[in-house]
């Protein structure tokens, strides 16, 4: 089980690093917004992995809040971009 946990942690770290690269170098604001949403998904996956590994359910409310935050943020950016492009 430890090998799997280390492998998952390494994959999530690589995903986070690549996402941070896209946030920094993204050519447009929409690329940065999508990368921020992906980074939030990586953080949620990391917290869920840690909760599953330790068999501790106290992190589940945090996961729900982060998921709702990611959804609301994505919808807000999409609405902003739609209004900006229609003018």
Short synopsis of the structure:
The protein is mainly α and 87 residues long. 89% of the residues lie in helices and 0% in strands.
Summarize model confidence as the mean pLDDT: 91
Sheet of most strands: none
In total, how many beta strands? 0
Note the beta-strand portion.
under 5%
Structural class: mainly alpha
| Amino-to-carboxy terminus distance | 54 Å
Helix content: over 70%
Tertiary shape:
flat
Question: H/E element string?
Answer: HHH
Q: How many helical stretches? A: 3
Low-confidence spans: pLDDT under 50, at least 5 residues? none
Radius of gyration: 16 Å
Question: What topology emerges from the helices and strands here?
Answer:
Elements: H1 2-25, H2 29-54, H3 60-86
Helix pairs in contact: 1-2, 2-3
Properties at a glance:
mainly alpha; about 90 residues
């Amino acid at each position: 089980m430890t090998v799997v946990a280390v492998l998952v942690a390494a994959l999530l770290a690589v995903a986070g690093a690549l996402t941070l690269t896209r946030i920094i170098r993204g050519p447009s604001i929409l690329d940065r917004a999508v990368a921020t949403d992906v980074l939030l998904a990586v953080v949620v996956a990391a917290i869920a992995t840690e909760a599953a590994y330790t068999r501790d359910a106290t992190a589940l409310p945090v996961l729900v809040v982060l998921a709702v935050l990611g959804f609301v943020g994505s919808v807000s950016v999409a609405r902003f971009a739609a209004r900006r492009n229609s003018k």
